[in-house]
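Minutes, structural biology subgroup

Action item carried over from last meeting: produce the structure token record for NADH:ubiquinone reductase (non-electrogenic) (Linum tenue). EB confirmed the sequence was re-checked against the source entry. Recorded below for completeness.
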Amino acid sequence: RTYSDSSSFSKLLVVFTVSGGGLLAYADANSTSPIAPPEIKKKRVVVLGTGWAGTSFLKQLDNPSYDVQVISPRNYFAFTPLLPSVTVGTVEPRSIVEPIRNIVKKKNVDVHYWEAECFKIDSQSKKVHCRSNQNIDGKGKEEFVVDYDYLVIAMGARPNTFNTPGVVEHCNFLKEVEDAQKIRRSVIDAFEKASLPSLSDEERQKMLHFVVVGGGPTGVEFAAELHDFVKEDLVKLYPAAGKYVKITLLEAADHILTMFDKRITEFAEDKFKRDGIDVKLGSMVIKVSDKEISTKARVNGQVATMPYGMVVWSTGIGTDPVVKDFMKQVGQQETRRVLATDEWLRVEGTDSIYALGDCATINQRRVMEDIDSIFKKADKDNSGKLTVKELQEVVDDICERYPQVDLYLKTKKLRNIADLLKDDSKSSVEISIEELKAALKEVDAQVKNLPATAQVAAQQGAYLAKCFNRMEEAEKNPEGPLRFRGEGRHRFRPFRYKHFGQFAPLGGEQTAAQLPGDWVSIGHSTQWLWYSVYASKLVSWRTRSLVVTDWVKRFIFGRDSSSI
Ligand code: FAD
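Output recorded by EB:
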């Protein structure tokens, strides 16, 4: 198919083909024959997804030598950290979204957005197959194909159901803005239904039993928001219903918020207990029917069943089927949850496809495979052992290539290696490849997965855009580490994740924060820190002002409980 677009200059008509390799042809609109076309062969970059990773990439890309095509079923960027607030009306849905066309309206880069989903990536012929969101004149959803020179996969992930029966059919997810809107309506509908005159106490109890599955940051924040909504707004409007409300949080592990410091976990569990939120630890959901949810206790295998009014399922992320199919094509193990990339975010087994955000992870397993070659390079006298000086070279090499490693050099088993390196007097101490591998196994276990967070996705998007901006320059003057296999240097430094800490809002205007250096802060003052950080991170001044206005409105008038 051929699509045309007109620029703001009336004399120029810009024609491009979506499947035609990114050739721009300029023609004089007032003349019948085209002027001698200054043909510019631009490399086409196709970006799949307009979430944290894709949007961050697009915002930072400023090299005009690319023809950028963005494909995503969502024509907006959504600020996901505020989704739990949308479920109860603390913040309105439109306040946290920004149209993608506003974001990509760049003066110097050609960016075209297509509202469609990619249903197949064909890495052999470098094409992506897409299906439009729109049903045109009853003819169904149009399908089209887009060629690429570079592909950036930033499609996020699906909620993980662990194939638990009944979850897809009966549970609410909290992933998209539509999910949050649906939850908000369901909560209010439950209160309206429970207020009808002819119901028994038992029926009211069932309707007002809200179950949250998953004690991670999202599940915990939703339970806290729901508790505040009920306590601060709904029980005042539905006084008779108040006594029937129950919130249950089910967590399969021994604690909630396990990724946080123990002090935060303990504080959250105590606070929920005081608030009357029933936290059931070691409870694995095994089945959900239209009326009941069944759990199995981890300690004794006892099965329990409870009636519910609404379930919100928030147990982490699973693989998108399109990504799964693509994994097969490029020879990645199907048991993987996400795509494996190298430290430059390039999908393993490909040369021009990158993957960022929740759909990908950097494959740190190759640290171990590389050790042999690094070791052999450093072991100049072929003795099978390294001196401390040689060891220093090995560790420097590894740290340069795997930036996360140096974080762990200071910890646990690697501490003794770090000590050896610091202490010159031990220059005669030697280390064998086996010892080195044993020590680095620790690193391998710790650094293989970055968390699936907006923070990681946004940093990866910004990193990759910077690489694309400097592609030609870096080709001439590579700035990366020496190649372990082959000659010369890598073009770019590898991606390095900088952790700025994480928040866990716990309701009642209290938040817990774990900041770099394991600095923990909990309470009302941290809630104000949360307000300021999230307001500053919003994507535009428009959304920033809307969200702050929503917060002020909530303080003054309470939350809106109408079920629209
Ligand atoms: P997403 O942001 O999910 O974007 C994926 C994009 O791909 C979307 O635009 C989608 O429409 C598009 N897409 C999907 N399928 C296709 C397809 N077939 N073809 C083309 N495009 C497609 N992280 C934090 O760091 N801090 C927080 O406080 C925080 N809170 C969260 C709260 C909630 C409720 C949720 C759900 C997540 C939260 N996260 C938080 C996690 C964070 O949102 C994700 O890690 C982040 O969104 C990942 O970014 P991404 O770009 O990989 O994916």
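Discussion: The first helix runs from residue 52 to 60.
Next step: EB to file the record with the rest of the batch.
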